[in-house]
Task: structure prediction
Amino acid sequence: MSLGRSIATVGGFTLLSRITGLMREMMIAQFMGAGTVADAFFVAFRFPNLFRSLFAEGAFNAAFVPLFTGRLTADGSEAAQTFAEQALAVLALALGLFVAAVELAMPWAMMVLAPGFGDVPGKMELAVELSRICFPYLLLISLTSLQAGVLNSVGRFAAAAGTPILLNLTAMAGLWALAPYTPTPGHALAWGTFASGVVQFSWLVFSVRRAGLRLRPVRPRLTPEVRLLVRRIVPGAVGAGVYQLNLVINTMIASTVANGAVSYLNYADRVNQLPLGVVGIAIGTALLPLLSRQLKAGQIEAAVDSQNRAMEFGLLLTLPAAAALMTIARPVIHLLFQRGSFGPAATEATAAALVAFAAGLPAYVLVKVLTPAFFAREDTATPVKVAGATMGLNVALNLALVHPLAHVGMALATALASWFNVITLAVILHRRGTFTMDARLRRRAPRILLASAVMGGVLLAAEHAIRPYATGTLATLGVVSLLVAAGLAAFLAAAHLLGAAHLAEVRKMLRRQR
Result:
């Protein structure tokens, strides 16, 4: 399967997951709004997601996929399956012990993660209770991620890419069914989240068996291959999860700003995650095994070309998306969330945060393009060094911007730190001679940027002209639909006239290649 086709497969399922994720957030906004219960749940859910991003989807996959692919290529499927079984057993034991320890230490852990919650009566206790329900999700989703790495390594992207859809559907079902019987809607959603972990893990057990790679339970042993895997996970844990770590830092500071600030950032980030997930996660998921195979086969030029096309594809989709979100943030937030417990003041606060997050959207995706170049060469140390510098900058920017801009300053700090991360990684790869922008990318990138700016100008004028008509949900739906149509038409026209992209080339990227 070609890189473009792989990206389209993962991106299509990820798009569905992001749409169902927005539906989930819309339910949360209606049931909980942006106050004490919502803040407590978002922190409770972010806690296991932090470790999932660091140790499961991030560092673990970055270390596991090249090793599994290499074993599969050199020694065959049986040896690769044995390695995966050993890795699964060790991961399950280690995370089982870790989850048990954190459950016991949850009150103290929550004081670190959300120190400001103690200022609101009952809020810290609620966050601890919801976190204890949600945290076992880490174990289940991490084992799910290992199975996803196995499937991705053999070119089976669809089943793994669809698992977040199960998370959203199960969580929504839990919120709807259990809310009348639990102390708060947050309790219902927390139990739904736990159940979603069971559903996702069970689905991939079935999918791996269908792929002919059944992973049997074995006694955990630190074999030489597993030891090598662990050594590569440790430095990559921070490097692969910079974005999530920055969000956690935002959460810690936001908990001290105002009641509801954590919710504003979460809702804004959820909207920003739609293009980020569809493009960034799809590119990173498809690119890593491809680069690993090309480098193992000595196809250096092909690897560099894959990186350039992935970067071009990422820019083509994220630059216009960023411009759109920055110009029509308010009507989008109004349409998605303003109902029930979520009022106009929450809409304005969330829209302002979305504008700041969207400024870094292309950077979040480009990180997914650049880091596989290190991981495929089995270098997990360099990204962690860059990550350390990025985190330091993020903390400094948060502290500098939180007072004049409140929660919006924290979103802007995340965006600026992400651009620093991208530029630093690109410079290191260029100096090593492992990545160079080819003539086509150097020609297309500024034209894509200019076409996106043209589209942003059109949207800004259109939004200002029709803003008075966005008075209710149906009217806002019509306004947003018109704006999306106008923006898409403007970008396609500008891209064609400027030579930023051609439809025939996009079709060629998505065509299956033998």
Observations:
- The first helix runs from residue 3 to 32.
- The chain has 20 helices and no strands.
- The chain has one domain: 3-510.
- Residues 3-510 form one domain.
